[in-house]
Amino acid sequence: MMKKLQILAIDTCTESCSAALMVGDEIIADSKVAPREHAKLVLPMAKSLLAQAGLSLSQLDAIAFGRGPGSFTGVRIGTATAQGLAFGADLPLLAMSTLQALARQGYRLSDIPQQLVAIDARMNEIYLGSFCHHQGDFVPQQPERVCPPEQWRDVVDESKDYYATGSGWLAYADKLAPMPNHVVHHDIDLFPLAEDMAYLSQFAWQRGEAVDAADAQPVYLRDTVTWQKLPGR
């Protein structure tokens, strides 16, 4: 039986800033789309959730954070914030994939096991991931990559149906259309959420992926990222 964990999760990797607190089987969460306010919002969000649960940082098992890919600045803010909290409370960190978190969100919306995730990486590229639901977790089917949007077909099995989600589909709709029949639905106006990272963190914990704060590493997939507001946002 999996241990009932108490884990705080934060994410600032994309335009959405979010925090979530998992206490056993319950998750409470908060989020706001505010791409230039992450550094100001994320700590108050986390502290509010802890206060709601009547917990202190020292009572947690670990802190999970969005390790990327995403905005270069956002990934750094989230990593540094998580490290600061973990150092102060002597807690381990769990580095969570933004693409995997989006896959879990897509599954919650669709109940389709195969999830195809694309986040706009700017410079005519996407961050791309393919995941399959397995006993609550989401197993990567291919290594996460940054690539031209047209290359998304390289990570799919045309004999399976997929649910596609993420800002990459919106940003490069002209290059991706028409979508083939085996990509059955797509929710494009979604961002990764800490609540999904909190849920997924229990599997990362079980796999022994918790690390000391000093050893936590962001994942950029490329060295520099320019993050700009999407049209109409």
UniProtKB/TrEMBL annotation:
One GO cellular component assignment for this chain's record is: cytosol
The protein's UniProt keywords, in alphabetical order, are: Cytoplasm, tRNA processing
Where does the record say this protein resides?
Answer: Cytoplasm
Limits of the Gcp-like domain: 33-129
Q: Predominant location of this chain?
A: cytoplasm
Query: What biological processes does GO assign it?
Result: tRNA threonylcarbamoyladenosine modification
Q: Which NCBIfam families match?
A: T6A_YeaZ
Gene3D superfamilies, A to Z: 3.30.420.40
Cleaved signal peptide residues: none
A single Pfam family, by name?
TsaD
Q: What's the protein here called?
A: tRNA threonylcarbamoyladenosine biosynthesis protein TsaB
Recall the taxonomic lineage recorded for the source organism.
Answer: Bacteria, Pseudomonadati, Pseudomonadota, Gammaproteobacteria, Alteromonadales
**Family assignment from sequence similarity:** Belongs to the KAE1 / TsaD family. TsaB subfamily.
